[in-house]
Amino acid sequence: MRFPANLPQAASAPGTADGAARARAGVRLLTWAAAIGIGAAMLIMIALSLLRDSWAYPPMPLPATGPPWDLTSAHVSLGTATVALWIAFVAGTGGVAAGLAAIGRGARPPVRWVIAAAALVVTVLTVLPPAGSSDAFDYAAYGRLMVLGHSPYLIPPYHLRLIHDALARSVPVTWQHVPSVYGPLATVEQFLAAKAGGISAARITFWLKLWNSAAFATVAVAADRLLRADPARRLRAHLLWTANPLLEWNIVAAGHLDVLAAAAGLLGLLALGRQPATAAPPWPRVLACGALIGVAVDIKANYVLFGLGAAWALRRSPASLGAAAGAALAAAAPGYAWFGLPAIRVLASRRNEASADSFYRLFTTTASRSHLALIAAVLATAVALLALRRMPAGIADRPALRPALAVSAAWLLLWPYQYPWYAAMVICLLILYPPSRLDGLVLAPVVAGSISDPLGIPGSPLGHAAGLIHDLSVHVVSPVILLAAAAGLVALCLTGRWNPPEPGADASPRPARPGPPRTAA
Questions:
Q1: b/e per residue, 427-453, with b = 16+ CB within 10 A?
Q2: Contact indicator for 265, 310 with CB cutoff of 8 Å
Q3: Residue 184 near residue 339 (C-beta atoms within 8 A)
Q4: Taking burial as the number of CB atoms within 10 A of a residue's CB, which of 59, 189, 377, 464 is the most buried?
């Protein structure tokens, strides 16, 4: 039976218009939830950074003229700051999740407003004191030791207390007896910041945060340029990276140097350009790739995993592979040669350690922890190989991104010593990868780690109620979330259910094989 030509199609399906209206209303609701959740989280984080002097450790005398700036006249208690940050993390995570869901359902808010809001927040957090971690003060101490002529790989920050250095008051107690565990290039960056900041911990940490924010912006700009032709993926990239409150807190506000390595490593992988399967990249690109990944490794050694991604992409051309490896070695080796064996020994300094909220603590005993690195290495390698075989193809003509993401995600989810800012290594790759359930798995360690240690002050007294919640999150909630995320990656690899089924579509499992090639951004 055929309908008359002049009969509107809607007449045959009276519920279609109502369904479309409900869908549009749902998308609007998700978009507003994203804006409110992310906005509230950012405001809380800015407020607590402004009030840092009243709740954070170590003390940091401010210079007569900024930056950084602080509101020294206001006060907030440690317990209040903790609860406020928990609210910010939950709101920010919910906002990012709602935003990703809205984009998946067709929402396209103006990306320029997302970028502008994130840029404003990053700028403000950069000129405020470090908050959420004391690591920036460790960096400052290592840089100050270098200025005084000492190797931070041999002399710990406690030495500044012994000689009554001007920076001694701002040396964190937690790591004061621990020499630097960072790469030589990170030490050089800390030295330059100490030279620029003089005897002021505030000024030194400001320079460190400024360079970190520049690296954070570099990743955002690179993703924006590569994805500008795809509005949905462009928005998703900025939600996962640029406007993600948890990343802004753990990287920009706290001043962690991981973002420097992430930016260098990502640019190294992108330096290969669009790479057809039948042709090797030009030599200048190969050398740039190796050199930039070498720089990343010279900052933090775990970025050697990016080198594995590049090696996989170049495996069909032994000459290109050798050139990239040589360039990486030429970039990384001089720093280690300059600082000598002490800089090399730190690479294994935490091999059998586990973070306080690691899920390995649910299963390991004191005796088995002496083999923890071996156990974790076997598990992470097995899952990385599984992910290499089963993850969707991603971007076909940028073949280095997928293997780098596979091995980095396996390391993030299965290595026992992790902190939320370590996830920058994976998220900077994820933003260029097609959307999938992997998004949630990678964000899980960021959320869990942030909630279990919101202030970055180990052992700080939080009061009875907040202390109970904190202990529960560290010893139960966070390890369970991390274990579920690791198991989730294995499950996705085995089942192939990387994407949720479309409404009304057949939800039966699909073959767990890499998906069809995607076109390059």
A1: bbbbbbbbbbebbebbbbbbbbbbbbb
A2: no
A3: yes
A4: 189
Q: How far apart are the first and last CA of the chain?
A: 46
| Residue given tokens 């809205």 in the structure block | 102
Q: In whole angstroms, give the CA distance from residue 209 to residue 251.
A: 9
Q: Do residues 445 and 485 lie in contact, with contact meaning Cβ atoms separated by under 8 Å?
A: yes
How much is the pLDDT for 78?
Answer: 86
In whole angstroms, how large is the CA radius of gyration of the chain?
A: 24
Query: Under a CB-based contact definition with an 8 Å cutoff, are residues 235 and 224 in contact?
Result: no
What's the burial of 257, exposed, middle or buried (CB within 10 Å: 0-12/13-18/19+)? Answer: buried
Task: Decide if 53 contacts 437 (C-beta within 8 A).
Answer: no
Give the pLDDT of residue 468: 84
Which pLDDT score is estimated for 188? 97
Instruction: Report CA 355 to chain centroid distance, whole Å.
Output: 17
Helix, strand or coil, per DSSP, at residue 402: helix
pLDDT digits (tens, 9 = 90+) for 433-467: 999 999 999 999 999 999 988 887 665 666 667 77
d(CA 66, CA 438): 42
Task: Please answer whether residues 260 and 267 qualify as being in contact, where contact means their C-beta atoms are separated by less than 8 angstroms.
Answer: no
Question: What pLDDT was estimated at residue 501?
Answer: 64
Please give the single-letter amino acid code of residue 466.
A
Q: Residue type for 153, please?
A: Y
Say which residues have a Cβ less than 8 Å from residue 456's Cβ, sequence separation at least 6.
132, 133, 134, 135, 254
d(CA 102, CA 458): 37
> What CA–CA distance (Å, rounded) separates 360 from 496?
26
Report CA-CA distances (Å) from 220 to 86, 143, 381, 411, 510: 26, 28, 30, 23, 34
Region for 130 from its dihedrals, namely left if φ exceeds 0, alpha if ψ lies in -120 to 50, beta otherwise: beta
Report, as ranges of residue numbers, the positions in the chain whose pLDDT lies below 50: 1-13, 503-513, 515-517, 519-521
Write down the domain spans for the chain: 351-521
Tokens read off for 7: 């009969």
Coil, helix or strand at residue 366: coil
The pLDDT of residue 506 is 44
Please say whether the beta carbons of 153 and 342 come within 8 A.
yes
Length, in residues, of the chain: 521
Q: How far apart are CA 52 and CA 206, in angstroms?
A: 14
Average pLDDT, the chain: 89
| Number of C-beta neighbours around residue 106 at 10 A | 10
pLDDT at 514: 52
Please tell me whether the peptide bond between 231 and the residue prior to it is cis, using omega within 30 degrees of 0. no
Dist CA 81 CA 442 (whole Å): 26
